[in-house]
């Protein structure tokens, strides 16, 4: 009987683990099965390019739950088990080893995978992608040997690993990026330049407006060829050129995948078009009323909050996912939190407030006369709370007041 089947979660990252936790917290007494293709129990990924890469955080601290938590909560954790098929008619998940796991309700939290460069030399030793604990273990070893590091891609992972390679391991670091500034698509040129300056102050070199065409070397990488034909010598290469959502299971089972955002389409309850199948975390594209479109968010807080919300929805609770996108990073002495959303280039201006040079400021992205996104750097007393209030108010702001540190942020609202 379908109704006797367990609640099954495919994907043992943060979203999946938090969903399992929530099912138990909400009093669900049926079987819960969590299917993970990795050997490790669920862990958090942000430390992989920060604290754990730097050696400041112990391996034991990255896991979402203690090892014995799963047994204590009667969550059946299947590690090293890849789900290869989804039979929606039979309500079964097929595993790589041929087992079939029946489900009453199913949650897909399969996350995303690094986008791979399809260029010559991509398979050489010393070319690193960072998504899993094992990747960071390998990278730590390579960086500890020192030498020249070339980072491909000035996105979050590229910049965080560049900071670690430079500040902790003392490597010579060059970042290659086709856009004119780091973080161009996500923050725009104004803030991209703030990050470029920060890295330059720490001795990182940039090759901006430059693409990569080949990794040179025999068995091991020795250089990175750029699109002007020159070769940057490299002992270690780190590639951070984005991620793509793991939607194969859903797509092969006939569930809708959004052409623009690339994720499994869900409604505000994080439910797919199949009433017994839900999706959360990096893999899900959910409707945002605030921005009037589907969003797919590849950030920690979306997994942390989306997994639990999907679990509540699976239990029949009347819930809706309305969280604003949120992101944080740590690089050298810069700690930042960002909230909101805009399409690449989709804002009219950026308002700065505070001490940009001294790395203690807010910035706000404004479209028309409304704030659509904002961030703070090192202003932890108030954090992003005031930014969220401005965005959620959907009211016009007085940008002169917004820039003026003697006026409380909330008082910049015109309404
Ligand atoms: C190095 C790094 C640093 C980051 N730093 C930050 C940060 O500073 N701030 C921030 O906000 N966000 C950060 N992120 C993003 C954040 O970690 C992700 O948004 C978050 O991990 C998403 O969680 P998830 O549970 O949706 O997916 P994932 O963490 O990707 O977990 C999905 C799991 O499902 C498994 N899986 C996939 N397919 C199958 C299958 N068919 N069968 C079984 N298992 C399967 C995957 O192997 C994986 O273990 C970082 C990400 C990385 C990689």
Structural summary, described in words:
The chain has 415 residues and is an alpha/beta fold. It folds into three domains: 2-113 and 245-314, FAD/NAD(P)-binding domain, CATH 3.50.50; 127-241, 3-Layer(bba) Sandwich (FAD/NAD(P)-binding domain), CATH 3.50.50.60; 333-412, Enolase-like, domain 1 (2-Layer Sandwich). Helix content is 23%, strand content 29%. The strands form seven sheets. It has a five-stranded parallel sheet. A five-stranded parallel sheet has the order 9-16-10-11-12, covered by helices on one side. It has a five-stranded antiparallel sheet with strand order 22-23-26-25-24. The relative contact order is 0.12. Flavin-adenine dinucleotide (FAD) binds at residues 10-16, 35-38, 45-46, 48-49, 82-83, 109-112, 130-131, 157, 246, 249, 281-282, 298-301, 303, 327-329.
């Amino acid at each position: 009987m379908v109704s006797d089947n367990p609640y099954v979660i495919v994907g043992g990252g943060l979203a999946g683990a938090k969903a399992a936790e929530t099912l138990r917290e909400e009093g669900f007494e049926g079987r819960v099965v969590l299917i993970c293709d990795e050997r490790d129990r669920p862990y958090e990924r942000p430390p992989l390019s920060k604290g754990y890469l730097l050696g400041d955080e112990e391996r034991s601290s990255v896991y979402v739950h203690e090892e014995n938590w799963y047994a204590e909560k009667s969550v059946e954790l299947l590690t090293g088990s890849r789900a290869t098929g989804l039979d929606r008619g039979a309500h079964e998940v097929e595993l790589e080893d041929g087992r079939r796991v029946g489900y009453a309700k199913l949650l897909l939290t399969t996350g995303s995978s690094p986008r791979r460069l399809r260029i010559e030399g991509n398979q050489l030793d010393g070319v690193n992608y960072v998504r899993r604990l094992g990747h960071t273990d390998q990278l730590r070893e390579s960086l500890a040997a020192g030498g020249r590091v070339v980072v491909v891609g000035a996105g979050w992972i590229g910049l965080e690993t560049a900071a670690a390679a430079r500040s902790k391991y003392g490597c010579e670091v060059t970042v290659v990026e086709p856009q004119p500034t780091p973080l161009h698509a996500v923050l725009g040129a104004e803030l991209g330049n703030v990050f470029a300056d920060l890295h330059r102050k720490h001795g990182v070199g940039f090759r901006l407006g430059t693409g990569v065409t080949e990794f040179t070397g025999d068995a091991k990488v020795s250089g990175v060829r750029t699109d002007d034909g020159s070769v940057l010598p490299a002992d270690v290469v780190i590639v951070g050129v984005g991620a793509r959502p793991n939607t194969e299971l859903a797509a092969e089972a006939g569930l809708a995948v959004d052409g623009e955002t690339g994720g499994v389409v869900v409604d505000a309850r994080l439910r797919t078009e199949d009433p017994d199948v839900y999706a959360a975390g990096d893999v899900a594209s959910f409707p945002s009323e605030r921005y009037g479109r589907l969003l797919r968010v590849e950030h920690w807080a979306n997994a942390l909050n989306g997994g639990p919300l999907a679990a509540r929805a699976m239990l029949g609770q009347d819930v809706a996912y309305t969280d604003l996108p949120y992101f944080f990073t740590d690089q050298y002495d810069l700690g930042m939190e960002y909230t909101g959303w805009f399409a690449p280039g989709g804002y009219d201006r950026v308002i700065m407030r505070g001490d940009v040079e001294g790395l203690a400021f807010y910035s706000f992205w404004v479209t028309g006369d409304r704030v659509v996104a904002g961030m703070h750097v090192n202003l932890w007393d108030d954090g992003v709370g005031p930014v969220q209030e401005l965005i959620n108010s959907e009211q016009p702001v007085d940008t002169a007041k917004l820039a003026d540190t003697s006026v409380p942020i909330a008082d910049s609202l015109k309404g």
